[in-house]
Amino acid sequence: MKKILGHKIALMIAGALVVGFGGTVLYLSATSSQKSQNSNSTSTTTTQSVPPVTQKGEMPASSTTTTKAPLSQAAPTNGSTNLAALNTTVTAQLSPSDSSISITFYPEGGGSYTIQQLISGAWQVEKENAGYSGVGGLDDGSLAAGENSKTLRILKIANGQYTAVSKEFTINRADVTAAGGIKTYN
């Protein structure tokens, strides 16, 4: 009888450990997924720096919020500007699931940027005053499955003024497909 009771207790302890470990793994994967989603979403109006949580789970006494300077001028709509040249690369990557092509800018240095698209001969703003930390790329959305090309450029903002502009980048579906699904434009 003691032998059977000993096996039951050992099985119960082993089961509790398995359930506890499984719950921990699920919790960690859910938190990691939530952090990943939060880091992928970008705010185009406010940049917030939040200090890490202390070991007791409390927030430190101070946290800093920085708001971008408002633009004091409109983005140029023609092709010729007096702005400095901005070194930028663009990566276009085909999504096998829906045939869209994601477009990501990699400007030289962090800061605030405006992304424009050339439509009917005029530059139109797609994203205005978007913050970029200098790493990870500045997302411009995508080329939809039915679109064949898109011409874009990016403008740098400093102190509410446009200071630099990249060259024009024409993203062609045929070029991206021919490059194996990912193409970098320099």
List keywords for this structure.
single chain; 186 residues; 6-stranded mixed β-sheet; 4-stranded antiparallel β-sheet
Short description:
The protein is α+β, with helices and mostly antiparallel strands. 24% of the residues lie in helices and 39% in strands. The protein has two helices and twelve strands.
- Shape label: elongated
Helix content: 10-25%
List the secondary-structure elements in sequence, H or E: HEEEEEEEEEEEHE
Number of strands: 12
Structural class: alpha+beta
Continuous helix count: 2
Uncertain residue ranges: 35-67
Radius of gyration: 25 Å
Kindly estimate the percentage of residues that lie in beta strands according to DSSP: 35-45%
Major β-sheet profile: 6 strands, mixed
Distance between the termini: 78 Å
Assembly annotation: single chain
Query: If you average the pLDDT, what whole number results?
Result: 77
Please give a structural write-up.
Helices cover 24% and strands 39% of the residues. It has 186 residues and is an alpha+beta fold. Strands 3, 6, 7, 9, 10 and 11 form a six-stranded mixed sheet that branches. A four-stranded antiparallel sheet has the order 8-5-4-12. Strands 1-2 form a two-stranded antiparallel ribbon. It is elongated and about 90 Å long. The model is unreliable at 35-67 (pLDDT under 50).
